[in-house]
From TrEMBL:
PANTHER family: RAS-RELATED PROTEIN RAB
CDD domains xrefs: Rab
Descriptive protein name: Uncharacterized protein
InterPro entries linked to this entry: P-loop_NTPase (IPR027417), Rab (IPR050227), Small_GTP-bd (IPR005225), Small_GTPase (IPR001806)
PROSITE patterns hit by this protein: RAB (PS51419)
SMART domains: RAB (SM00175), RAS (SM00173), RHO (SM00174)
Keywords noted in UniProt: GTP-binding, Nucleotide-binding
UniProt organism field: Candidula unifasciata
A Pfam match: Ras
Domain of life, per lineage: Eukaryota
GO MF annotations in UniProt: GTP binding; GTPase activity
Amino acid sequence: MATGIPGYKVILHGDYGVGKSSIFRRFLNNTFTTATGRHSTIGLDHCTRVFKVGTQSVKLTLWDTGGVQRMSYLGSSYYRGAHAALLVYSLSNKDTFGVLSQFILDIVMNAEGAKIFLCGNMADAVNPEQESGQVTEADLEQFMSQCDDVFSGVYQVSCKDNNGLEEMFTDMARVLHRDSVSRLTLRRDLVRPGDTETANSEKSSCC
Ligand SMILES: Nc1nc2c(ncn2[C@@H]2O[C@H](COP(=O)(O)OP(=O)(O)OP(=O)(O)O)[C@@H](O)[C@H]2O)c(=O)[nH]1
Ligand SMILES: [Mg+2]
């Protein structure tokens, strides 16, 4: 299916229980599983969907696995060939936000060149009355000021309410495709001087 369509591998990353598999299920078949039916992810799963970026079709393949496995024997295979990582934390659990820099380091070390997209999930569970334990706008602002250009996109979603997810996937497809097209154009431009060289060497061999 969909041969010839540019495709990008995106791996889910982030602390346990932040909703990585819930994002995966929204991506796969737009469903949501509540706490009672929830199991920590075991094994690897992936799914491909096609998005429209202007008139161009773009494939995103999303990969999900449980935290324990990701850190142990799966090793580099999960990361191999990843164009991007979707780094997830829970807006209602500050601890999952506090460990983001470890995950960024993990991505940078294992998935070289992968773009990082940041996703705050569980927006529905944030209680504006209560400040402690949740991720505030001030926390985010401070973190972003330290992170500079680390993230290619920053989103807030709710898997439960199905809020912001399709917009996030479409935006990731757009950014990944745009950057890959720019890289191709740059490569083509860089090849041009070589073309002259070829022309010159042809000329010299003929003289
Ligand atoms: N309220 C609320 N709960 C959510 C949301 N997304 C996920 N959950 C719940 O959070 C729990 C953990 O979700 P998972 O998707 O299993 O988390 P995970 O990151 O895949 O967890 P591991 O596989 O253990 O790393 C489940 O009980 C979900 O129902 C959300 O947007 N809002
Ligand atoms: Mg999971």
